[in-house]
């Protein structure tokens, strides 16, 4: 689990990232990135009911994304807000694919140290 201070939780934070952030999309995931004035990164994960009607499947996907973020967070530049969005074809993907997609997104956004 991500520490609460490292999560986007308020609606106004998500809205700010979606309105002012820089987007990047792949087949499975999308990401919006925006600089913040903090010394650490904050992450928000969005998985709509269009991806899956079952809450258990959506929560499973969130856990996989969070685990992949934990592995990559130390390699990222600090001071960023990131909103990660799952796309409908993302359902039933293995952890390796999730981690690979996130790494590809972060590389394209040029946020690795």
UniProtKB/TrEMBL annotation:
UniProt GO molecular function: 3'-tRNA processing endoribonuclease activity; ribonuclease P activity; tRNA binding
EC number: 3.1.26.5
Keyword Acetylation attributed: no
CC terms in the record's Gene Ontology section: ribonuclease P complex
InterPro entries the record matches: Ribosomal_Su5_D2-typ_SF, Ribsml_uS5_D2-typ_fold_subgr, RNase_P, RNase_P_CS
An example Gene Ontology biological process: tRNA 5'-leader removal
Keywords in alphabetical order: Endonuclease, Hydrolase, Nuclease, RNA-binding, tRNA processing
Ubl conjugation found in the keyword field: no
Chemical reaction(s) catalysed: Endonucleolytic cleavage of RNA, removing 5'-extranucleotides from tRNA precursor
Name of the top EC class for this enzyme: hydrolase
Function: RNaseP catalyzes the removal of the 5'-leader sequence from pre-tRNA to produce the mature 5'-terminus. It can also cleave other RNA substrates such as 4.5S RNA. The protein component plays an auxiliary but essential role in vivo by binding to the 5'-leader sequence and broadening the substrate specificity of the ribozyme.
Similarity field: Belongs to the RnpA family.
Quaternary data: Consists of a catalytic RNA component (M1 or rnpB) and a protein subunit.
Record PANTHER family: RIBONUCLEASE P PROTEIN COMPONENT (PTHR33992:SF1)
The protein's name in its UniProt record: Ribonuclease P protein component
